[in-house]
UniProtKB/TrEMBL annotation:
Segments traversing the membrane: 6-33, 45-67
Keyword Transmembrane included in the entry's annotation: yes
Source taxon at top rank: Eukaryota
UniProt KW keywords: Membrane, Mitochondrion, Transmembrane, Transmembrane helix
Protein name per the record: NADH dehydrogenase subunit 4L
Lineage: Eukaryota, Metazoa, Ecdysozoa, Arthropoda, Hexapoda
C-alpha cells in the first residue's frame, strides 16, 4: 500500500492532464490488485468499469488534442502557400 501513497503524493507535482490521467490509472490498477486479493467481486467489477472508462476518457482527450494540432498544422501550411 506504500505505492498507493507514493502515487497519490506524486499527483501534487503533475502539471500535464495526461500524466494525471495515467497516474490515476496506475492507482486504480493497484486498488484492483488489492481487491483481487480480498476477493471482493462487486467492487472489482466496479473498478474494472472505472479503469475502462478512464482509459476511454484519456484516449478521447489525446484524440482531441491531436485533431487540434493537425488542424493547426494544416492551416499553417495553407497560410504559408499564400
Amino acid at each position: 500500500m506504500i505505492w498507493m501513497f507514493i502515487l497519490l503524493f506524486s499527483l501534487i507535482f503533475k502539471l500535464n492532464i495526461l500524466s494525471i490521467i495515467l497516474n490515476f490509472e496506475m492507482i486504480m490498477i493497484f486498488i484492483f490488485i488489492s481487491m483481487y486479493n480480498m476477493k471482493s467481486k462487486i467492487l472489482m467489477l466496479m473498478l474494472i468499469f472505472l479503469i475502462i472508462s478512464e482509459g476511454v476518457v484519456g484516449l478521447v482527450f489525446c484524440m482531441k488534442w491531436a485533431f487540434i494540432y493537425c488542424n493547426l498544422k494544416i492551416s499553417s501550411n495553407n497560410l504559408s502557400k499564400l
